[in-house]
Amino acid sequence: MRTPIVAGNWKMNLSQADALTLGRAIAEGAPTRGVTAIVAPVALHISALGEALASSPVLLASQNAHWAESGAYTGELAAPMLRELGVRYAILGHSERRQYFGEDDEGVNRKTRSLLAQSLHPIVCFGESLDEREAGRTRDKVEFQVRAALAGLSADEARRVILAYEPIWAIGTGKTASPEQAQEVHAFLREVLEDRFDRETAQAMPILYGGSVKPSNFAELLSQPDIDGGLVGGASLKAESFLELCQIAVQKSTAG
Question: Of 96, 132, 143, 166, which one is the catalytic site residue?
Fold first, then answer.
């Protein structure tokens, strides 16, 4: 059984003092089993959060990473640097990165391979726009993005990747794909993964849902057989709601 994951993407929010307060509150209340709890602060706060979370079950992620180990890439973050600070995961290909900073599928693939080479876990995001959904192109879009992100990977490497389906029309809008809509895409992706690798790999890889995830809708989303957790935005900025999401995940893990 795949362990449920709750990954909080804090985006460009919180002062360092507030980030530390939030991180410590989450660390204090986080379950020790039944869920993988991850937080992704802004890059400036990674070092401080790493120290604050060091003895807790909460794991640390970066909101981005570069494909090179070093070099003339002003403002970027190299995977070895992140690993040195205790980072275990990095979010790649988020729709905001694609929309505002020109991130493309080839770049996501290069970053994915770089992270894996440094023993880090990529959290690879993908999803369709509202126009693409209404045009019936959801499957074509997500299959293309996932195949591109995983190009050149072995099955063993792919099992270290976390996928995150985030329909663009649901991110920060208050709209959420229905559990049935999300499950349909997740189940389809298992088929894509089985075709690309094998059935064992397809069943082993976690697929998260992201897009206005909150405690009021998380249990129903997690009740779907192919949804393994959430990549959470706003609800991860308060300890109470993030920890409630973790408890919901534990309940699924225990029930399963």
Answer: 166
- pTM beyond cutoff 0.70: yes
Q: What is the pLDDT of residues 83-142, one digit of tens each?
A: 999 999 999 999 999 999 999 999 999 999 999 999 999 999 999 998 899 899 999 999
Residue 131 forms part of a structural domain: yes
Q: Is residue 244 part of a domain?
A: no
| Residue 200 annotated in active site | no
Annotated binding site for substrate: 9-11, 172, 212, 233-234
Contacts of 157 (CB under 8 A, 6+ apart): 113, 116
Domain presence at residue 249: no
Does 166 participate in catalysis according to the annotation? yes
The sign of the CA dihedral 91, 140, 202, 255 is positive
Residue from 94, 103, 121, 143 carrying the catalytic annotation: 94
